[in-house]
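Milestone 3.1: sequence recovery, worked example.
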């Protein structure tokens, strides 16, 4: 029996099978649920055009980032999304929503409702990043809405243990109703292992469109220091379309889309030619890019926080660095690049870590066990 209808909408996107919805995770999750016999159907919900335009106008702000958050945090917008969900007639016994932009328990009282999350608002606030200019009133309204929605769920699924603990602590959800099922890498086909991979080239790979949030500024400063000890070191940057004052040895490749065959081939080439992946984020809800890098046998240097510390173990498959510390980042990068043999060992172990836990079929198996117990 196919037990679950999945709803997407709001800030995650409203096209369930689009590679852009929920940063690509929606598509892979749904395909794995189909293959696992769990999915009844997937639906996207959106507010009708006129009410949506009125809500956008109501929250108008000269800063587009603030405007977007005021709009998404508006309780009226969330109620409108919930009303849109009511128009669906699901046949499955369990309903699942991605995120807490709406409330399935409110739309379908008496039904078994669950939700799935890669991050939440309390953790974003705690990071001190990304909420500049957003009114306290709007933040408090969003926190209250999400807490109420969370408490009405029969089960909450999270990408990580740190996020599971956040729902228990910050939204007061009983621990027995919150489950860390993990998240998966957003690749359709996994790369073959390369037993002859060369780790002597000192090529560092960074991927992140939101360059500042991902710690890109600190990385450029640290890379200048690394080059003093390792003049041959290279830094390859994927994501931003333009950056000023790149140091010698740094190369910008712009945005590379997996859906474009030529760009995908370029991205795969960068993965295969690199010897180390780095993501020194100032805030990272989960971090799929380091996991994808590990599939290509790249050790990962990431921030010692959030879910990143759950899948990177220092000395085993990478290294952890202090958030925002240029000095610590430069030291760790220099140390790890100076030992190609150790890099090879960590690269092999990193691939094993991903294959053991961070694939969508394994996530769905853990999710299914909980859903069927409901």
């Amino acid at each position: 029996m196919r037990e679950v209808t999945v709803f997407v909408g709001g800030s995650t996107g409203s096209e369930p099978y689009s590679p852009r919805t929920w940063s690509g995770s929606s598509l892979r999750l749904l395909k794995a649920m189909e293959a696992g016999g769990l999915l009844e159907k997937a639906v996207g919900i959106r507010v009708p055009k006129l009410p949506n335009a009125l809500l956008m106008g109501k929250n108008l702000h000269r800063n587009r980032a603030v405007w977007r958050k005021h709009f998404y945090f508006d309780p009226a917008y969330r109620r409108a999304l919930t009303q849109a969900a009511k128009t669906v007639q699901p046949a499955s016994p369990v309903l699942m929503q991605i995120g807490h932009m709406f409330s399935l328990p409110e739309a379908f009282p008496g039904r078994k409702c669950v939700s799935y999350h890669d991050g939440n608002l309390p953790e974003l606030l705690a990071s001190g990043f990304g909420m500049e200019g957003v009114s306290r009133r709007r933040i408090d309204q969003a926190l209250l809405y999400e807490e109420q929605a969370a408490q009405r769920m029969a089960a909450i699924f999270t990408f990580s243990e740190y996020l599971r603990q956040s729902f228990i602590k910050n939204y007061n959800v009983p621990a027995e109703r919150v489950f860390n099922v993990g998240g998966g890498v957003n690749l359709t086909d996994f790369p073959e292992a390369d037993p002859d991979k060369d780790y002597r080239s000192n090529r560092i790979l960074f991927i992140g469109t939101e360059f500042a949030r991902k710690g890109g500024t600190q990385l450029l400063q640290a890379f200048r220091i690394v080059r003093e000890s390792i003049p041959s070191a290279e830094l390859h940057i994927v994501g931003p379309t333009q950056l000023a004052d790149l140091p010698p040895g740094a190369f910008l490749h712009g945005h590379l889309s997996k859906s474009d065959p030529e760009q995908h081939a370029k991205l795969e080439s960068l993965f295969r030619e690199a010897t180390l992946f780095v993501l020194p984020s100032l805030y990272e809800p989960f971090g799929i890019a380091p996991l994808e890098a590990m599939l290509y046998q790249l050790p990962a240097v990431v921030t010692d926080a959030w879910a990143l510390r759950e899948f990177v173990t220092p000395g085993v498959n990478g290294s952890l660095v202090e958030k925002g510390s240029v000095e610590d980042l430069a030291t760790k990068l220099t140390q790890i690049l100076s030992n190609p043999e150790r890099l090879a060992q960590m690269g092999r172990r990193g691939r094993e870590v991903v294959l053991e836990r961070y694939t969508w079929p394994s996530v769905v198996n853990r999710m299914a066990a909980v859903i069927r117990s409901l």
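The chain has 15 helices and twelve strands. The chain has a mean pLDDT of 96.
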